Amino acid sequence: MLNRRILRVKAFKVMYSFAENPSMTLAEAESQLEASCEAVRSLYLFMLSIIPCLTKEAAQRIESAKGKFNPTAEERNPNMKFVENAVAPLLEGDPDFVKILSRRKLSWEQYDAFIRSTYESISQKEYFKAYLEDPTHSLAKDAALFIKVFEEEFVDSEALAEILEDLSIWWTDDLAYALTVCCDTMKSLSKGIRWELPPLYRSDMLTPRPAESDKAFVTKLLRTSYSCYDKYFPLVASSTD
Asked: CB 3.0-4.6 Å disulfide test: which of 58, 93, 103, 214 passes with 201?
């Protein structure tokens, strides 16, 4: 999941924390690095779990419209394509996915206002209207729709940024990367591949695996930076004055 570019950034941030708190031990630094890395996977899970929430929001709107005193013809015979998308049931019906969300206490339940506003935004987009107008149904097209949602609806959302900041100190800067992994998951699902929790490190996804794992790489990077901090900090400071 995590590549070496993002691992370098995370190691740097831990060293910045060490610069702010020189009493931090190496064990504490390594623990902070591990927590920061795992938080990206939790963020990925949290964002992926918005799919069933958006689907339920659409279903509730349709049922509410049908229950009006005098519904329109369109409200009586709504377009059910999004509500019946094939992606949401795959996630909701996956016991591993549900169990992991529960164990990590990841839920959108208290953020229903954000779910409503997000669905409202999506429903006004041309890509969504084109999706509804297409009479053909397929898992691939449903997955492609959610890829568009992940790509276009969240990165610049101030409301989402506030939610993520409240939930985890680690999530502030990792949203774009987590959404990329969500898109990768949609591509896998569209090919009929069952959902699995992605390995934390990208090297664990490669066959054959590289001689040095990404975990070993970032751990060595952090330990070397920590042990050589007093030697190299003055050099770095002098070049940035």
From this structure: 214
Give dist(CA 144, CA 141) in Å, integer. 5
Query: What per-residue confidence (pLDDT) applies to 241?
Result: 62
H runs (alpha helix) in 134-209:
139-152, 158-167, 175-190
The list of the chain residues with pLDDT below 70 reads 241
CA distances from 218 to 5, 9, 10, 213, 221 (A): 10, 10, 9, 9, 5
Give residue 77's pLDDT.
Answer: 87
β-bridge mates for residue 2, sequence order: 201
The position carrying tokens 């049908």 is 66
Q: How far is CA 84 from the centre of its chain?
A: 23
Token couple for 153: 């609806």
Tell me how far apart the alpha carbons of residues 113 and 89 are, in angstroms, rounded to a whole number: 23
